[in-house]
Amino acid sequence: AFTLFHSLRKRNVESLAPSLPLQEDFVYHWKAITHYYIETSDDKAPVTDTNIPSHLEQMLDILVQEENERESGETGPCMEYLLHHKILETLYTLGKADCPPGMKQQVLIFYTKLLGRIRQPLLPHINVHRPVQKLIRLCGEVLATPTENEEIQFLCIVCAKLKQDPYLVNFFLENKMKSLASKGVPSVISEDTLKGQDSLSTDTGQSQHPEELSGATGMEQTELEDEPPHQMDHLSTSLDNLSVTSLPEASVVRPNQDYNLVNSLLNLTRSPDGRIAVKACEGLMLLVSLPEPAAAKCLTQSTCLSPLLVFSHKEDASAFPGKRALISFLSWFDYCDQLIKEAQKTAAVALAKAVHERFFIGVMEPQLMQTSEMGILTSTALLHRIVRQVTSDVLLQEMVFFILGEQREPETVAEISRHPLRHRLIEHCDHISDEILWNTGFNVLYLRYFQYSLFYCIMTLRMFEHLLQKPNEHILYNLVLRNLEERNYTECKPLCPEDKDVVENGLIAGAVDLEEDPLFTDISPENTLPNQEWLSSSPPATPDHPKNDGKTEVHKIVNSFLCLVPDDAKSSYHVEGTGYDTYLRDAHRQFRDYCAICLRWEWPGSPKALEKCNLEAAFFEGHFLKVLFDRMGRILDQPYDVNLQVTSVLSRLSLFPHPHIHEYLLDPYVNLAPGCRSLFSVIVRVVGDLMLRIQRIQDFTPKLLLVRKRLLGLEPEGPLIDHITLLEGVIVLEEFCKELAAIAFVKYHASSTP
Questions:
Q1: From residue 706, how far is each of 574, 644, 692, 702, 734 by CA, in Å?
Q2: In 3-state terms, what secondary structure has residue 542?
Q3: Does residue 539 have a cis bond before it (omega within 30 degrees)?
Q4: If pLDDT is split at 50, 70 and 90, which confidence band does 753 have?
Q5: Average pLDDT of the segment spanning 26-35
Q6: Which residues lie closer than 8 Å to 562 by C-beta, 6 or more apart?
């Protein structure tokens, strides 16, 4: 009661005190704080029961007022007093001791407001950045403390100041010698240790002061030079007797103390309070984006950021029982992606490699290579989601190397399993479980594994489709282009007479006349892409095979695809709005997007000259195209959803503006070498099989039309139709041929328009 009365009396006296000049007022409030430690006998009372918070707030207001009254950049006497008397050092000592209880919180608030409200740069001053660095070490030491909110606010304001002036980060890259000394560790260090520390030290550009190697265990002499000697003795004794209890540190291991700001933020990312964790992540985002090379090197080599950025295997195993954990994981990966995207180049590369080694290889790969059907399905779905989510170029590169490997030489049949994960994923696209063939007599078991196989296939195909849309040249080169580089799928000879008879005057009987198609000129010139040489004509001109004009050639190519499916097997013309023209707009938009992605890859404008190609080398289309072609060859016998996904991936590949891809996938007249196949030749074989099979199906055309209308939702579901798989396959085949024709036409139009 007496203490409370004394406190109230002091407040009343102070409220009646006359107005003083700013400097005198500032000194008055500071001395009022120091007198508390001299006069008080009760160091257990909380700081909120004292006048300390009020005095600190008044000091801040005075500093802000002083700055506002002076010209920009000019330091006033109050700020000079704060710097010269090392007030921040003293406050750090009091905050570390947390005396009176709650003082640490008040010190953090003072530091935060000082850095946030004062416009002139304070951190370059040694009497500011040194105590700031010391206070940073106190943050995140213990999780879920009452000061967590103030700690993260303080750390974030420091990060914001460093973002404004990145060079200041060098003041916060301590060498380990200083850190050990400031913790009171005896400096008994061998010569070998000193040599080892040299490699960890970072030149901060600061002048070294002897006092920097001593810890702040009491108030400096200059802080109280105006105090009477007997009061200085009392205050020194009071500070010496403060109980600075060592609290247990957070569970994060600190291998070095070179970059304490990062370490403290990392500790707070594990706070049980989600808001604190998010703010800590935001602070790290600011730090990794700083352009200072020394900071980037210290961040990746002398902190726990890289290993802690990835989940441990145990955490993953216990954190995936349900939806909440999945959302947590995806949020974490999104943060990693954004962190690496914003990071300085050196730091970004190091962090991405850490994700590759510790998460992709350490966690994901065992999951993807396991034998459990459900486990593989789950991990493949997760990989698909990661592929879709990643936006950082550096992390994308590491993810691509993880999935596909780094190989760029042409594939051979004997070495398709050279990168096991790539081989496994591509095989999933053509997956038929061994268990399905084991005993088809057990219908339930058969159905279960058939469903798993179907899901494997579709999920992995979708993953590859999204991978092909990523802005990374290695993806397409590794999967396709490396095998087409030498054009050894071609045979350099003129067309045989049988092939010439197929086309009469460049047109096929019953083909669409593009000159009369209003969509031929529907795409405005301003929406077209720059002129390209590689689509002007096909096949190459020879004495026996003269080059026709480009328009004739595109007629031939477009109509070759449109006329692949015989009229007896077509059903789109019976349904309004399902013509070939419906694909033109989508093809134009998609082709424009792909050209924008591929522009920086500097692809050639025309195919590699045949005389420079190694046509004698054995041709292998590669594992990826082999599986897609095999799937395409079974389009009449596999589920509708699989057919949609296979044709979707092939159409994506056809859109790429590379001359070899265009020739191999979209040129019906390429002279294939013996034993080679192209997309067109695969479809021709399917059509040949179709012509034989439809002869054995009664009422084929009405059934085909009914199936189409059901798929479009124009007819309600009814009794099961026999040969449903084949009928759905025919519909997909017809639509795919129209889509390929539209892609070929859009490519021609884009290349021929000035």
A1: 10, 19, 21, 6, 15
A2: strand
A3: yes
A4: low
A5: 94
A6: 511, 512, 580, 737, 738, 741
DSSP-assigned letter for residue 291: -
Picking from 606, 610, 503, the residue whose alpha carbon sits closest to that of residue 558 is 503
Which one-letter DSSP state was computed for residue 72? T
C-alpha distances out from residue 664 to 1, 319, 458, Å: 93, 46, 25
- List CB contacts of 400: < 8 A, sequence separation 6 or more: 467, 470, 472, 474, 475, 478
Q: Is 604 within 8 Å of 534 (Cβ atoms)? A: yes
How buried is residue 137: exposed, middle or buried, by Cβ count under 10 Å (0-12/13-18/19+)? buried
Q: Burial, 184: exposed, middle or buried (Cβ in 10 Å; 0-12, 13-18, 19+)?
A: exposed
For residues 263 and 251, give the distance between their C-alpha atoms in angstroms, rounded to a whole number: 12
d(CA 243, CA 49) in angstroms, rounded, equals: 20
Burial of 443 (0-12, 13-18, 19+ CB in 10 A): exposed
Separation CA 198–CA 180 (nearest Å): 14
* Burial readout 362-400 (b: 16 or more C-beta within 10 A, e: otherwise): bbbbebbeeeebeebbbbbebbbbbbeebebebbbbbbb
Question: For 260-286, what is the mean pLDDT?
Answer: 90
| Both structure tokens of 11 | 């407040």
Residue 723 Rama label (left phi>0; alpha psi -120 to 50; beta): left
DSSP letter for 356, please.
Answer: I
Q: Is the pLDDT of residue 374 over 50?
A: yes
| DSSP code string of 457-490 | HHHHHHHHHHHHTSS-HHHHIIIIIHHHTT-TTB
The amino acid occupying position 563 is C
Residues 696 and 711: their CA atoms lie apart, in Å, by 23
**Average pLDDT, rounded, for the chain:** 79
Considering only residues 632 and 527, tell me which one the structure prediction assigns the higher pLDDT. Answer: 632
Q: Give the domain ranges of the chain.
A: 23-138, 295-310+321-483, 551-752
